[in-house]
């Protein structure tokens, strides 16, 4: 970095001291990671703002590395944060460092400084783009209650009261594979004006799944993402309204936005989930990121009502796709998975809805960049793909 920036960070930058970390532990901040040596004590010159500190314990005998853990922390100017390593747990200690110990470290800063690595400033601009809408409050709200984000969450058995087993017998007719219900099972037909539950067969997968133990994350360990509602429509909707809300999921997006303090926090949640996947190796976070992308791309009316949200959505997902691991990108390209299909749907919606101004310019640039860099095909947006056309079902007239 240039001398002026270095001087400024020396004065205003934060410091993270990590005491007792074993040699060869994988330690990182934001998008950078190293293997520690015996003199490692932490990181200095951390730019003020939100940062993601992460680590993985290493077995000195076998060289194996544990799954990644970490936490997000908002560093204020000149903040001095101290954490300790728990050798028995091979994890960050839950004990708070006393104020007396922290003051002794500050008083000994001259000797401590040479054991601190400088923040990798070359990643700072990209990190700011990836985390631009994540506030300190939002990060705390979405993180597990324990504060630690883990790639592998400890699971415990569910209690009998919490353990849903199988399906109700009155709702289902269980049959063997490739076997239809018997005449006795299906001979009773509902009379006119009556409704009846249609019997369906229990699949082999359902039977096998019912035999498996039901597990849930240990208390305080699971992410606290905003739950995407299963019903995509308001209570009391007519069939026509239900169809409308499934085709245009603006209602669901508005419901999600209402769970936050401000609309742009939904983009902050998208960024948070992505970083927990990219850096924290959480597949749970990847699934939430993917579902949020699919939801935002499935909106029509909301594009005009929440222009700022969609403006920052384009800025965010563009940089996210650039940083996406090659294996996941290959899956998107080769299999044309839901992310690709929903982005195509999003571009079509912008085309049909006549989005204009700066937002349209951003959408067009994003589409062109995806085509140029990843060879994604977004031609023919004015026509429906064969697998996306509505299915027309002809009902036989009642005799």
From TrEMBL:
It holds the Pfam family AAR2_1st. Residues 161-190 have a biased composition (Basic and acidic residues). Residues 13-144 form the AAR2 N-terminal domain. Gene3D superfamilies: 2.60.34.20, Aar2, C-terminal domain-like. One of its GO terms (biological process) is spliceosomal tri-snRNP complex assembly. Residues 161-216 are annotated as: Disordered. Keywords: mRNA processing, mRNA splicing, Spliceosome. GO terms for cellular component: spliceosomal complex. Component of the U5 snRNP complex that is required for spliceosome assembly and for pre-mRNA splicing. Belongs to the AAR2 family. Interacts with PRPF8 (via RNase H homology domain). Component of a U5 snRNP complex that contains PRPF8. This is Protein AAR2 homolog. It comes from Manduca sexta.
């Amino acid at each position: 970095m240039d001398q002026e920036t270095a001087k400024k960070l020396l004065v205003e930058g934060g410091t993270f001291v990590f005491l007792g970390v074993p040699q060869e532990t994988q330690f990182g901040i934001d998008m950078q990671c190293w293997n520690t040596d015996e003199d490692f004590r932490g990181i200095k010159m951390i730019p003020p703002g939100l940062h993601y500190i992460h680590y993985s314990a290493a077995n000195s005998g076998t060289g194996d590395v544990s799954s990644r853990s970490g936490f997000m922390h908002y560093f204020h100017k000149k903040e001095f944060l101290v954490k300790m390593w728990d050798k028995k747990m091979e994890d960050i200690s839950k004990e708070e460092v006393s104020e007396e110990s922290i003051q002794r470290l500050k008083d000994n800063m001259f000797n401590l400084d040479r054991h601190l690595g400088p923040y990798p400033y070359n990643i700072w601009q990209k990190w700011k783009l990836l985390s631009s809408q994540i506030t300190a409050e939002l990060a705390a709200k979405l993180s597990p209650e324990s504060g630690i984000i883990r790639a592998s969450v400890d699971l415990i058995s569910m209690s009998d009261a919490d353990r849903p087993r199988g399906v109700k017998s009155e709702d289902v007719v269980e049959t063997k594979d490739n076997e239809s219900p018997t005449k006795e099972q299906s001979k009773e037909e509902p009379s006119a004006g009556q409704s009846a539950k249609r019997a369906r067969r229990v699949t082999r997968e359902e039977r096998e799944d019912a035999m498996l133990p039901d597990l849930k994350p240990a208390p305080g360990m699971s992410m606290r993402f905003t739950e995407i509602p299963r019903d995509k429509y308001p209570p009391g909707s007519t069939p026509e309204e239900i169809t409308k809300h499934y085709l245009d999921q603006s209602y669901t997006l508005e419901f999600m936005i209402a769970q936050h303090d401000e609309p742009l926090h939904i983009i902050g949640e998208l960024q948070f989930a992505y970083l927990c996947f990219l850096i924290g190796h959480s597949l749970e976070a990847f699934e939430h990121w993917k579902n949020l992308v699919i939801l935002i791309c499935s909106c029509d009316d909301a594009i005009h009502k929440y222009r700022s949200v969609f403006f920052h959505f384009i800025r965010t997902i563009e940089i996210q796709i650039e940083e996406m691991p090659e294996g996941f990108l290959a899956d998107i390209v080769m299999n044309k998975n839901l992310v690709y299909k929903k982005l195509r749907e999003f571009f079509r919606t912008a085309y049909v809805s006549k989005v204009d101004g700066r937002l349209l310019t951003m959408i067009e640039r994003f589409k062109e960049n995806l085509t140029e860099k990843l060879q994604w095909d977004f031609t023919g947006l004015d026509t429906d793909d064969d697998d996306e056309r509505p299915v027309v079902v002809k009902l036989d007239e009642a005799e």
